[in-house]
Amino acid sequence: MPSAPDDSTAARLLGAAEHAASTLRVTITGPPIWGWEGRSINAPVETNRWLRLLSIPADRTPSWDGPQAAEAAVPETVPRPRLHEVHMWRDDSFAYRAEVYDRVDCQPLSDGALLGYAPDLPDAWWSALRQSLDTVAAVETDRVAIRQERLHWALPKFLEAEVETEVPSWSTAHADIQWSNICGPKLCILDWERWGLAPAGYDAATLFISSLIAPKLADRVWREFAYVLDTPAGRFSELVVASEFLQGMQRGNNLELEGPLRERVVQLLG
Q1: Which of 64, 65, 93, 99 is nearest to 81 (CA)?
Q2: Are 224 and 129 in contact (CB under 8 A)?
Q3: Which region, left, alpha or beta, applies to residue 207 given φ > 0 means left and ψ of -120 to 50 means alpha?
Q4: What is the pLDDT of residues 71-111, one digit of tens each?
Q5: d(CA 262, CA 97)
Q6: In contact, 10 and 40? CB cutoff 8 Å
Q7: What count of other Cβ atoms lies within 10 Å of the Cβ of residue 37?
Q8: Which stretches in the chain have pLDDT values below 50?
Q9: Are 118 and 126 in contact (CB under 8 A)?
Q10: Are 189 and 177 in contact (CB under 8 A)?
Q11: Sign of torsion, CA 58 59 65 66?
């Protein structure tokens, strides 16, 4: 779980959270939970809701309307915290977005992208996850999560091989379906900032690749999503996800995945 940022960043975000709570007429009722790299803060608020505050430098163009767009477009059958209110503002240095959600009564399966064991989840949970991702894949949207232009650059660079870079098939994806964004034993899918068009099978590929450090879990993911993964489009999406993890490893992220990931890339490249 991310730790608190430096004192000045923490004070700024705490002050912004208090401002957001006042504007949205909610009361913070618990200690803050910090997001990655001091860019967000979360806290429980009264009436069983949850406050999330995001912050970016004021000179950057925000791309944080994903949750609001998901609230409007993604069917209610996909279990997720429902978004109720949004408040945005900026000062000379930072832009802010505050969101009030339902508070969920389950916990994410991991603190990070990877999961190092096979959790004891019922068959109904896996069935609900499959149905949810299939439902998302069928949503019509003009939002773009993965850009073709990036793949032309990233696939040969991080896979260190000559590979086909043209996406064979597109569909809508959550596009951040790592284990820290999935709850159990009651299914709930968190963090809809990034969702949009991606290579078909991208979500299933993300689940599979991020399970490789736990072979039993990887086997279960494969069995559940073989109808997506064991296709040319699914294998292409695995390479896309692999390139993203390999890029992150250059910054020191998820290094425990490197060995099994490189083995999988060799298998995919034949």
Answers
A1: 99
A2: yes
A3: alpha
A4: 999 999 999 999 999 999 999 999 999 999 999 988 999 98
A5: 38
A6: no
A7: 9
A8: none
A9: no
A10: yes
A11: negative
